[in-house]
Structure formats: structure tokens, C-alpha cells
Amino acid sequence: MDDTVNQMITEFVTATGRPPEEWQADWLATPVVRPTDPVPVLLKTREDRDDPQSAIVPRAALAQWWLTPPFSSVLRGKHATFNARSETVTSKPTFRSAIARQRAVLPAIGYFETKKSSGASVPHYITPPSGLLFFAGLYSWWQDPALSTDDPARWHLTTTMLTQAATGSLAEIHDRMPVIVARDSIDEWIDPRIIGDKNLVQSTVAASSLLSEQLHAEPHVKP
User: For 3-219, CATH number?
Assistant: First the structure.
């Protein structure tokens, strides 16, 4: 992520009708992100986590790109959780609680995918026609058991990105792709009052398949 993404996120947040400070924004500029790095996420959560009747508050924040479920004993387990397969996300213990009510979007200007052919690996940079991509994601809060309950540093926000079978020309590069959320569908995806079930996941994946037809893949070949 770079300053361009920061500016686009700010414009997106402002377009919702609320000033960015109401989203508790704390994203930072990072040129390249990798699993376990902090990445920007947009989500909605209860103002009071312990009160199910409290107001819904939109938020932009940084989260560890490696989802850690509350029951984990460590922040980063040995099994990779930076991606979640859409086909099994509602049944996997690691993700099924988060898909129900803790969904997010991960904004980006593009992403890299590598095509392997005849022993060669060629990275492709995949971008939308304009603006940002919004990847369907989940988030989870993890509490560090080594810290006291009154220590604010004990809480870690973590996230994962949903993936699906690649479609169209993208399938010629890789067999998987991120699930893309249309801009006008973000509110529904991140609304914790809407139960995340198989129907929601399947409809989001179907819409993503159509959105992917608009993406452009540019090979990056080293000279």
C-alpha cells in the first residue's frame, strides 16, 4: 500500500458521509504487504463490544494479515490463515465464527499473482480499470493471555482474505483469486447485523466472478 491507496481510502471513507476520524482511522503507508504484515481493513463493529444493542460504528484500522481465532494460544499459529477458502469458510473452526458477524473488506489498488509455465514463474500485476479493489475479508480480535486484562496492548486485530476459484482469463494465471466485493455491496458485507452464511458467501462469490472480468493482468518480466 502507498500514499495513493491512503488517499483513496480517505476519499472512500469521506464518501460514506462520515469524516475519517469517525472511522477511528489509523492506517499507514506501506509499499508492499506480505502475510503477517499489518494491512488496512474497513469494518463495522458495535460501539460497546459487550452490549449487543449498542450503535454500529464504522472503522478503518490496521490488522495483522493472518487471522487468529480467539481460541488460539498464540498470535500466529503454524497453519497459514491469511487466506480463507470461500468454499469451506462457513465450516472451518478457524473462520466460521468470524464469517457470521465479523466481516471486513481489504482495500488495495491491485495485487500480484504468479503464473507458472514450463518451469518459469512470471508475476502478473492485476488491477481494476480505476479506483480501488475491495477484497472480502474477515477479522478477529485475539487477546494475549500473557498480558493482564487491563492492559490495552493485549488486544490484536487480525484479518484474512477470502479466495475463490479463478474465473475467465485470471484462471490462466492461477487457479485461485481473491473474492472481490463491489463498492455498493460493502455495507452489506461488513454489517454485523447480517448473518454471514453460505448464501451470503455464494452470492458474493458469484458477483466477484463478474467483477473479475473487468480486471487487467500485466506480466512483470525481469529484463
Answer: 3.90.1680.10
pLDDT digits (tens, 9 = 90+) for 155-167: 999 999 999 999 9
Residue 167: DSSP 8-state: -
Nearest Cα to Cα of residue 183 among 129, 125, 107: 107
Q: Do residues 75 and 65 lie in contact, with contact meaning Cβ atoms separated by under 8 Å?
A: no
Task: Tell me the HSE value of 24 on the side-chain side, using a 13 A CA sphere.
Answer: 11
DSSP one-letter code for 2? -
Report the alpha-carbon angle 131-98-192, nearest 5: 70
Question: Which stretches of the chain are DSSP H helices?
Answer: 3-15, 96-101, 186-190, 198-211
Return d(Cα 4, Cα 202) in angstroms, integer: 32
In the block, which residue shows the cell 491512503? 6
Q: DSSP letter string over 19-46? A: -GGGGT------S---TTSEEEEEEEEE
Residue 154's pLDDT band (cuts 50, 70, 90): very high
Residues 135/162, Cβ–Cβ less than 8 Å: yes
Q: What is the pLDDT of residue 21?
A: 55
Rounded CA-CA distance 69/75 in Å is 9
pTM above 0.85, yes or no: yes
Rounded CA-CA distance 40/34 in Å is 12
pLDDT in tens, 111-146: 999 998 777 889 999 999 998 899 999 999 999 999
